[in-house]
Amino acid sequence: MYCIKCGVELADTEKTCPLCGTTVYHPDITQAHATPTYPPFVKEKENMRPQGVLFILTVLALMPIVITLFCDLRLNGAITWSGYAVGGILVAYFVIVLPLWFARPNPVIFVPIDFALIGALLLYINLMTGGDWFLSLAFPALGIMGLIITALVTLMRYVRKGLLYIFGGCFIAIGGYCLLLEFFINLTFYDSFSFIWSPYPFIFCFFAGLALIVIAISRPLRESLHRKLFI
Amino acid sequence: MAHNNDSRAGLRWMKLDNAAKIYPAARRRRWNNMFGLSATMSEPVDRDVLREALDTTVLRFPSIAARLRKGAFWYYLEELRRAPEIEDEGAYPLMYMPFERIRKCALKVLVYENRIAVEFYHALTDGNGGLVFLKSLIAEYVERRYGVIIPVSDGVLDRREAPRAEELCDSFLEVSGDVSKSRAEPNSYHIDGVREKDGFVNLTTFIIDSDLLRETARSYGVSVTTLLTAAIIRATCRIQDSHVARRHQKMVKVLVPVDLRRLFGSQTLRNFSLYLTPGIDPRVGEWSFDEVCHAVHHQMALGVTKKEMTMRLTKNVNSEKSLIVRVMPLFIKNFVMKSVYDAVGEKKSVMDLSNLGIIKIPSELEKYVDRFDFIIGALPNTHENCAVLSYKGKTYINFTRDIQKSKLELYFHEELRAIGIRAKVESNRR
């Protein structure tokens, strides 16, 4: 076969002319099949080097820490407001960076660690501000949220099926969490134990969760929804 | 020079030869200087047999089956403990090999269908050294696969023999003299273009009847290399004409490596080649094909002599021998050598044209090998390169290109057609 534009003889492997880019075509001759000279192109995944990312994140975290500490010490002669900023940056740093140290980070381990770090920061703020809200509000609220999220990631990682059950249960748990949160807020800051806002998210989450569980149980309903809502 | 020749005393290590010293320093984030040689067999490659053949062959070539290691003042080569893994060939030749990998093993053995390809880091050896390795590997493979005896001749070495000292030596140091010659020369025009995405390298192969090529070259009174160089120069001039007004044009020169083994009677398997950069100045007017051929022919004839080459290589060897350079820590040396490479390394030529000539192998091996290919990769600022060899009456001209437009290949083909040479073309086009 010859290129109809530049006239070069082409190997049977060519679909377009390598010299001028013209599609190989002849009205009377069918091009013989030939094995390509090289395997097809597969785009390689470009993996970022974790050490490089770690270095950049460390520098990005260190810069504001040094600047805030320096300013605070120059202005006040002691660590006052900068402690909160530094604590916040350190918590964010460890939440983002800790998984990068491992080849296969397991969220079941890192999620509770992240909540523990946030708890430690809140305890520090509580102590520094002389507040008494940690034990009655922050600790239980954060602890329960930590338990719900840890349970969610554990189930998602180790239970391959039943996502609808898992999310249904999670919705109901979050609804219940809203009620508990308002209870702890009332316990800490008010004397009243009336629930003002939390019943609304509770009702929504409860029924949404229940709906997911019903959909999980009912196969015809699931198929009908899939038929109606597919994208 | 190889050290610890007794393998019981430990792994052999070798200083980099004079030509190799620049390659580790000149590396880029996405580029290392590699070249490839391949043999297309008559049947699909049996990987298990190739594995066994490779295990045997690497023991014979401690300077090629080697890895690059770092000393305080210089890089050096260390022979491999075991042969590298055999890999699948990718969609294009000479895929980027990270420097970290070169420090573990500086060559790759690849297989695709009937083809056995070996890609060498240039600090190990040059095209002729690599060809001896490939010939010996396929001889061992054919012996094991088909049970035939391949004689030790035509560049096939005995794999059971111990490596000889003269194969491992740095011949540059042995033949250098007292008088050196400056490397200064004018810069050349460079082809530029939009880079291919994902680091893809386009390979375009021109397959030409060797007799026709030789006869045509003879009719111009020049060698095949000179004829092809002239065609590339003319093609490049056409590209320059379309971009640059004649009075502002630069010289068009092609870098042609010269194998020094025959000139100096060396047996080394390390790098032992130098280069010439024949070319023309397009500002003086239109150059006919005949004129370019004769200009290149005479420039080559003046350069390829023992004395001229000795003076040129002595200049490089003197740089290496300088006490100041030797005591400089490696990281400073790398910085200096990279700066020199950036400043002059690729500016003296538009591209390389490396011709390994006619490949001869023992007749017992010939029926199992359909074809050979030689490929040199694009350089950081030289986006096209060309490598040539001839085998079984056909000449294979491989153009590699890391930019999108293939104007040079198109014009090159038009130049060949104008002098009556018909070529068949194949590629790895996506």
SSE pattern of chain A: EHHHHHHH
Shape of chain A: flat
Show the largest interface: A-B, 25 and 30 residues
Q: Just give the CATH class of the largest domain in chain B.
A: Alpha Beta
* Total strand segments of chain A: 1
Nutshell version of this structure?
By secondary structure, chain A is mostly helical.
Would you kindly provide a written description of the structure presented here, covering whatever features stand out?
The complex is a heterodimer of chains A (231) and B (430). Chain A is mostly helical. Chain A has 7 helices and 1 strand. The radius of gyration of chain A is 30 Å and the shape is flat. The two termini of chain A are 45 Å apart. In chain A, 11% of the residues are buried. Chain B has 2 domains: 2-165, Chloramphenicol acetyltransferase-like domain (Chloramphenicol Acetyltransferase), CATH 3.30.559; 197-427, Nonribosomal peptide synthetase, condensation domain (Chloramphenicol Acetyltransferase). The relative contact order of chain B is 0.18. In chain B, helix 2 (47-60) packs across helix 4 (127-146), helix 8 (224-243) crosses helix 10 (289-303) and helix 8 crosses helix 15. In chain B, a hairpin with a 2-residue loop joins strand 7 (107-112) and strand 8. Chain B has 15 helices and 17 strands. In chain B, strands 9, 10, 11, 12, 13, 15, 16 and 17 form an 8-stranded mixed β-sheet that branches. A 5-stranded mixed β-sheet of chain B has the order 6-7-8-3-14, with helices on one face.
Summarize the topology.
The complex is a heterodimer of chains A (231) and B (430).
Chain A: E1 9-10, H1 50-76, H2 82-97, H3 107-129, H4 134-158, H5 163-189, H6 199-217, H7 219-229
Helix pairs in contact in A: 1-2, 2-3, 3-4, 4-5, 5-6
Chain B: E1 2-3, E2 13-15, H1 22-25, E3 34-41, H2 47-60, E4 66-70, E5 75-79, E6 86-88, H3 99-102, E7 107-112, E8 115-121, H4 127-146, H5 165-168, H6 171-175, E9 202-209, H7 210-219, H8 224-243, E10 252-259, H9 260-264, E11 273-276, E12 279-280, H10 289-303, H11 306-321, H12 323-327, H13 330-345, E13 351-358, H14 363-366, E14 369-376, E15 384-391, E16 394-401, H15 407-418, E17 424-427
Parallel strand pairs in B: 6-7, 10-13, 13-15
Antiparallel strand pairs in B: 1-2, 2-5, 3-8, 3-14, 4-5, 7-8, 9-16, 9-17, 10-11, 10-12, 15-16
Helix pairs in contact in B: 2-4, 8-10, 8-15
